Amino acid sequence: MQDLNFQTEYKEGFSMPENYVYKPEKGLSEDIVRKISGMKQEPSWMLEYRLKAFEHFTARQIPSWGADLSAIDFEDIYYYIKPTDAQVGNWDLLPDEIKETYEKLKIPQVEREMLAGVKAQYESEVIYGSLMKKLKDIGVVFLDTDSGLREHEELFKKYFGTVIPYSDNKFASLNSAVWSGGSFIYIPKGVKVELPLQAYFRINAKNMGQFERTLIIADEGSELHYIEGCSAPVYSSDSLHAAVVEIICLPNSKVRYTTIQN
Fold it and tell me: Is the C or the N end of the chain the one with fewer CB within 10 Å?
């Protein structure tokens, strides 16, 4: 049997220096949940939703189905890291270490050649976003989920948590309590988006927890292909990626969802 060195074979396993706007202490508490919601200036109903989810998380057991996840130390995780002050629409405006990360992952090249829009998340926040002007002009919405809550609150509230409620299982509760970033997509009636939309999620910090929340709403007769990818460095200690994706397909709509993970 050939002995492969995973560290050298896995080309996405690199890490970059940390230069973050905000990085809290490790561990999860009600104060951390309130701080996340407060930093995002969320409406009161979302804070209440997060706190109810946190109560469920503390009360629920690790799921007995699937892989054995009982060894996770939830107090050894960073639950929210803010890497930059604001999202940008130009790769050149990103900090050098983040820009270099996505260049190594070839995301800018793929955007130019194959995609209708891109969101790039680094740690807890979406730090880059783009969408073809012709799609904006016909009403397509492709935002990070935090912006979706701010700019389309009524539509957001109607569908958020309707596919996967916070009470579904312990990890759904965890995501619902501390979610940050992810994609918010709305495709208007009858609109067919021919090129894919993509989001790429990158963990960089050791012991990082990434909890993006994606909400896709395809109105009647619309079509979309959405691709998510994620990767992380190789560390001797654990990171945690616990996402929730909710896809709403209204009558005669079609959504193709592809996820590519290491």
Answer: N
CB atoms within 10 A of CB 252: 13
- What pLDDT sits at residue 183? 92
Task: Of 238, 231, 258, 260, give the one whose Cα is nearest residue 10.
Answer: 231
Q: What is the pLDDT of residues 129-143, one digit of tens each?
A: 778 888 989 999 999
- Token reading at 260: 């590519």
Mapped onto helix, strand or coil, the DSSP state of residue 84 is: coil
Give the C-alpha separation, 164 to 51, whole Å.
Answer: 16
Cα separation, 85 vs 57, whole angstroms: 30
How far is the C-alpha of 18 from the C-alpha of 207, rounded, in Å? 13
- DSSP lists the bridge partners of residue 249 as 218
Of 241, 46, 45, the closest CA to residue 36 belongs to 46
pTM for this model (two decimals): 0.84
State which amino acid sits at residue 26. Answer: K
What does the pLDDT average to over 164-185? 95
Q: Which helix (H) or strand (E) holds 47?
A: helix 44-59
**156 sits in which H/E element:** helix 153-159
Select from 171, 156, 259 the least CA-distant residue to 217.
Answer: 156
Rg (CA), the chain: 18
Q: Which H or E run contains 31?
A: helix 30-39
* Bridge partner residues of 79 (DSSP): none
Q: Tell me: the pLDDT tens digits for 210-234?
A: 899 999 999 999 999 999 887 766 6
- Strand partners for 141: 186
The two beta strands, 223-231 and 183-187, are: unpaired
CA distance 10 to 7: 6
Q: Are 202 and 120 in contact (CB under 8 A)?
A: yes
